[in-house]
Amino acid sequence: MAFEAIFQPIEIGKLTVRNRVVSTAHAEVHATDGGMTTERYVRYYEEKAKGGCGLCICGGSSVVSIDSPQGWWSSVNLSTDRIIPHFQNLADAVHRHGGKIMIQITHMGRRSRWDGFDWPTLLSPSGIREPVHRSTCKTIEEEEIWRVIGDFAQAARRAKEGGLDGVELSAVHQHLIDQFWSPRVNKRTDQWGGSFENRMRFGMEVLKAVRAEVGDDFVVGMRICGDEFHPDGLNQDDMKQIAAYYDATGKVDFFGVVGSGCDTHNTLANVIPNMSYPPEPFLHLAAGIKEVVSVPVIHAQNIKDPNQAQRILEGGYVDLVGMTRAHIADPHIIAKIKMNQVDQIKQCVGANYCIDRQYQGLDVLCIQNAATSREYMGLPHIIEKSDGPSRKVVVVGGGPGGMEAARVAAERGHDVVLYEGGPELGGQITIAAQAPQRDQIAGITRWYQLELARLKVDVRLNTRADAAELNALQADVVVLATGGQPFLDQTPEWGYSPVAEDSLVVSSWDILNGKVAPGNNVLIYDTICEFAGVSAADFLADKGARVEIVTDDIKPGAAVGGTTFPTYYRSLYEKEVIMTSDMMLHKVYREGDQLVAVLENEYTGQQEERVVDQVVVENGVRPDETLYYALKEQARNHGQLDLEALYAAQAQPCLSSEGEGYLLFRLGDCTAPRNIHAAIYDALRICKDL
Amino acid sequence: MLETLLPIVILASLALAGLGAWRRISLWRQGRAAPVALFKGLMALPRRYLVDLHHIVERDRYISHTHVATAGGFVAAAVLTLVVHGLGLAGGVLGWLLLLASAVMFAGSILVAKRRINPPARLSKGPWMRLPKSLMAFSAGVFLVTLPTVGVLPPDAGYWLLGLVLLAVVSGGLAEMFFGMTWGGPMKHAFAGALHLAFHRRPERFSTPAGAGRSTGLKALNLDDDKAPLGVEKPTDFTWNQRLGFDACVQCGRCEAVCPAFAAGQPLNPKKLIQDMVVGMVGGSDAGYTGSPYPGKAVGEHHGDPHGPIVAREGQALLDAETLWSCTTCRACVEECPMMIEHVDAIVDMRRHLTLERGQTPNKGAEVLENLIATDNPGGFDPDSRLHWAADLNLPNIADLGQVDVLLWLGDGVFDMRNQRTLRAFVKVLRAAGVDFAVLGNAERDSGDVARRLGDEATFQALAKRNIATLNQYQFLRIVTCDPHSFHVLNNEYGELGGNYHVNHHSTFIAELYREGRLAFKPWKGGSVTYHDPCYLGRYNGEYDAPRDVLKALGIEVREMQRSGYRSRCCGGGGGAPITDIPGKQRIPDMRMQDVGDTGADLVAVGCPQCTAMLEGVVDATAEVRDIAELVADALVTSPARVQAEEVTA
User: Fold this and answer.
1) A92 with B644: Cβ contact below 8 A
2) A468 in contact with B, Cβ within 8 Å
3) For A262, which of A195, A271, A348, B524 could close a Cys bridge (C-beta 3.0–4.6 Å)?
4) By the 8 A CB rule, do A166 and A213 touch?
């Protein structure tokens, strides 16, 4: 049997988990109403259990005390008995499908914000400021220490009474327990700081109190770091000592190990490794912990593929693999392995849209799976065949929105044609994948290619559909996802011309897709500050160009998420790319065989000039609306969507109407420039009811 | 003149027939002893012939009518000829009756002759081509020589010349029909066939007035008997009545026509195999064989020795080992054989020798057998991992209960992800119906099916005895299993070793639960469905109706394949065939999926993990493969109270 190691059940404490795959704790950011788990929350985890996940540890950073605020990330609030009936719903939903569910509980100490909700005074061992959240805090007092220890015990009791299978004490990501551990943050000289035993004391008292409260028939685990990666922090040897110390008590049922600390932007990026990292980059740290403990060890971080999981487990490095983002991308990953449908798994590409939203306090969503965490709205992971009329569906544009529309329509059982003007599917994904360390984003396209082939969609590459051709097809539904073009003509002074020889500026797309050769001395003007600008900079620098990236915004790459801008910066600084903020591109003119870019300071109006041989402008996308307006009048619905139905993910009313001609739907960037998720979400919610 | 010569000719042919019979019988008796109730068998012969054998022959209406006329006419004519011409008792109606009998036989002979114009490939040619002429010679000759006896022609109408011609014709007919019947020749089948029916090694196969008989379990080797050979090495290692059975073959090739291995171009033809066994009895080359060869193997290159090995240790003897390993033990040949010959028994007997004495189980065979010995399962999986697939199902273990209504026998499919889906579906069904069931868990072992089919009787018996010892610790009303191979072994082969159980295939049990109103189904919304009968459920155990009843209960109208029911084509997965993996021109499961495709069905329902694996392994198949349990589980209408326990889907 292939994947045998994955499907070997395991005992954690007195609990049997059906396989070795865990959805590890992460903040879902959808426990609302004071931290009570919602229908959305329950369905999100139920889907994973339904899909075969062995163990879900929910509620990353769920709080045990009221001075560890839950509101910022809508995390679960275990500081009140009100949570118990909510847990019962959650536990029932997961158990119904044979899954197990635990919750991470914590006091975040200084790692939060104080400027909202109850305006709490944050606590930490020595009152030292936390940089990532820019949060200040007080030095925790003895009475508060004992109160928090008691809060942990009560929280564990609530989890148990709610029918959950266990709790994971968070001693990772610089929460209160590991704030006490780390000499970097704990400067105390009383019994709670200083010596190893003293620094361990808070965590030990928490563990003792929790175990005493819940007894032996409830799982209590700890999530710890494998190495903080700070010179003055805890290294792997320290962490081994700590793990062995707690393990020796016999009170810990499992350890979850995260490589890297995360109280700086740069270390935070390690914790949820994006696509620039190799597979399982920190497995060795977890394996090191496994060497010194007697209970199962869980490790997540860039484990996305069943073969990889099998290899890690077979090698005995750890006992359970966390495949958390893998489940966000495809909650049915385990079921697909079992169904021998490994090729149908939508694999996480490490775009980190999920976690980057989370760090902004937004709900966790998947860049490529619009059904994830929208299960409660009825957005399906498995598209059922329609029992209505079979339709001819024509999709124009093979970017993410078009590919999703074609896939969903084909799953519904319709006859689907997909037109793509270029030589391959993928749209802007294909361009994005050209940048250094960004190639894995093409995994989104690869999955669609496999699915469209499996579903026998008639894909017509290198074919631009015009209105006459579309009208001749006698389609029932036409979906336009034609995207757009780089918006270079917004400011005439930039000197853009559609005739390449005459144009003073080129687009980031042309640089990335190789249409324009890299210059030697390049200025990139990036007013958008998302991926394309920094990708073009990294690409050019990688080809040996001297690059300056200039923005009128706060900082280049400012809109790239919190776990990804650090990996860009590592690369850009390494290649000596100059990053200039607060300057807008006023004008470009030619001087001899050089170009002069005139920059103007946003705040002073002062102008500077740069003499370069290439100016790249990243100004986002201008929608391509031509085809839409050519078809709009003939379409039965005139291209209009019923927004109430759309936002409620209900069927478009026009689908049940009769009449001559086709229905026309427009989605993605050809409507307004947004992102991959937006295009895919619109495609799914429009097409799921076709 | 004829009055004088005829009795002499008749008596001479009878004497020669007696000589032939002595020779044949002594050939058979060179085989090993076998316990046979001789007198009881002879008494049962008429019924076995007229009811059981006729039942099979009648599947081909043309040949059935032909045979009734020819054989019926012949038997009557032969007896009357002895009386009328041999003893000269022509008085009363006897002569007229003889005329009638020979006329009927003549009519039959014409039908035989017609069959021999462009005969189908499965029929042997050679001496069989002269049979219609011999039949006509006998019947026409007897008719003509009887005409004077009843006074239609004057007694002295003896034109000498005509008389001599007639005598020659009659003599020829007599020689074929009487002497040839025992010494050898096409008519041998009548003599050997009749005795084969009387002394059949599986008397249970024959029906009684009380009902149909069935006997499909392999017979155990007595491993404690030092003198008994371990399987069949030489022709003389067969029991005498097996040898008799080989002689009964009429070379009609019905076995060949249904053999999946033959169709796939693997080197097996059941008819040729039986004829080789016949060659083996007397020795010599197979060159006289006039039917289709083993695919890829020319006729005339193999030689048998009555006391030498059938499969040579080096070079060639009577058979090549790959012929034996091509068999899927699907019993299609046995089911079709109008002479009720037991091909599969013979093949497994010879496999036993190859495996037990020579250790020559080919390809993955040795590995699988070693795994079975070391881990109690063919895949070599950790025996304590039998319930890994069900870690989240909380299956009740019979060891904790002691007593239960239904013991769910899981089979080795527990190690296969595909089959785990079937098992999970069936558990859902059992729970939906509120069945009191339990499993043996890690105490279950491989049933021994594969070991036994691969000829490893010792491993089979070791596994069986340990399973029986485990089973006998507990009380249960019946065993239910989703695996027809386990079903067959538990039901039909454990009895000889002391394990007697009431065993059901899951389709039988589901059909029963449905009849009792314990299951309710949503209306079927899928596409068209066909059903593949697993060999070990259908031909081995006669269960053709229950799966179809279940499908009907689901609201499915089965689009039957041309080959279904007792004529179902094997998936290629039985008898260890996927393990020994003898190459052919095409794969058996591909042919079966083509059968499925020909019905236009979107889905093929199966009831066997082996069939599921084989059919699902077909590339570019047009139909989905699903076990009946899965279809039932998907269609269940469950009360909300039970939903909680049952929604474990993945």
Assistant:
1) yes
2) no
3) A271
4) no
